[in-house]
């Protein structure tokens, strides 16, 4: 399929947009367009931070996988834009269910499972080689996220992976987007790279003039990154302008009375077995400080709990429901 010029463009076609999260983009001009576009968009995002240590306390690999699946489902249900996995345990136990021969930590395991689940099913074989950590992922329920489109579904964007076969026309790359045939991107990319393709409005693949590499879409619910310490350095590192910590020792405020200021990047942090307090104590930059000092708000989202402890995966579901109305009010400001 040859590239159409502007004179050939028909009604309903869209101008190409470029957005990539890879620093090694093949076109420097596209990087400039990306920066300019991002300045205009400024779409507010909500992230959650989860400690990798919750995996280290699970007795079997299957249960560890199911735990990661619960977190992925919660993040998808509440439309979380990003999951931050922070490693608050440097040395895994010798009896860990993880593959210690590869020095795999609970954080790296959790990251891998979340990344796998966030990826549409038709891309997983190409992007994820066989690994022991993925042995039980087939038992997990699908996320059914908005960007997990089926073969018969057409959407404005589809996730894809560049394939080895290059289109006959120079300057084009074939991309597998989970349809009956590959589509063409009018740019050169290395094979095996994940991209998000702008599909346009015409359902006929042969008539779509442009495809774009757009990785940072709001429909991509989970973008995984790891952080080697506690949450302390996250604001300067990722640009979060409002951070909320959750703990049974936090302040009790009714959801209807909670006021969250207008934000660009909101982060909600959850602790592990010993809570966020342990993570703060282990941070050399916060020696002698209280956990409340690391957050803009430090809240107890489930007062009067009936169980002595609330598991992290339970706290995530409870808290994200608690924050729904306050976040909605903040976004309307």
From TrEMBL:
This is Uncharacterized protein. Belongs to the class IV-like SAM-binding methyltransferase superfamily. It comes from Glycine max (Soybean). Signal peptide: none annotated. Residues 1-38 are annotated as: Disordered. It comes from the Eukaryota. The lineage of its organism: Eukaryota, Viridiplantae, Streptophyta, Embryophyta, Tracheophyta.
């Amino acid at each position: 399929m040859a590239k159409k010029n502007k004179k050939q463009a028909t009604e309903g076609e869209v101008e190409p947009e470029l957005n990539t999260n890879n620093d090694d983009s093949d076109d420097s001009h596209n990087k400039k367009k990306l920066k300019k576009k991002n300045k205009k968009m400024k779409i507010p995002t909500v992230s959650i931070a989860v400690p990798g240590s919750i995996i280290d306390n699970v007795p079997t690999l299957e249960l560890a996988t199911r735990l990661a699946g619960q977190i992925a489902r919660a993040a998808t249900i509440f439309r979380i834009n990003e999951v931050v996995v922070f490693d608050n345990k440097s040395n895994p136990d010798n009896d860990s269910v993880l593959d210690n021969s590869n020095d795999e930590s609970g954080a790296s395991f959790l990251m891998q499972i979340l990344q796998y689940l966030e990826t549409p099913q038709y891309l997983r074989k190409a992007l994820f080689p066989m690994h022991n950590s993925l042995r039980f992922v087939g038992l997990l329920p699908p996320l059914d996220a908005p960007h997990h489109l089926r073969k018969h579904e057409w959407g404005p964007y589809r996730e894809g992976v560049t394939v080895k076969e290059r289109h006959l026309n120079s300057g084009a790359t074939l991309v597998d987007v989970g349809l009956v045939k590959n589509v063409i991107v009018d740019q050169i990319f290395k094979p095996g790279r994940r991209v998000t393709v702008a599909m346009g409005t015409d359902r006929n693949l042969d008539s779509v003039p442009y495809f774009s590499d757009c990785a940072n879409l709001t429909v991509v619910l989970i973008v995984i990154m790891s952080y080697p310490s506690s949450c302390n350095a996250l604001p300067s590192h990722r640009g979060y302008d409002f951070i909320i910590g959750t703990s049974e020792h936090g302040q009790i405020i009714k959801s209807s009375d909670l006021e969250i200021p207008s934000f660009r990047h909101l982060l909600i942090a959850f602790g592990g077995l010993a809570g966020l307090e342990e993570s703060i104590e282990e941070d050399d930059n916060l020696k002698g400080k209280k956990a409340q000092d690391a957050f803009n708000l430090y809240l107890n989202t489930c007062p009067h709990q009936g169980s002595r402890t609330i598991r992290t995966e339970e706290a995530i579901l409870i808290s994200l429901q608690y924050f729904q109305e306050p976040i909605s009010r903040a976004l309307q400001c």
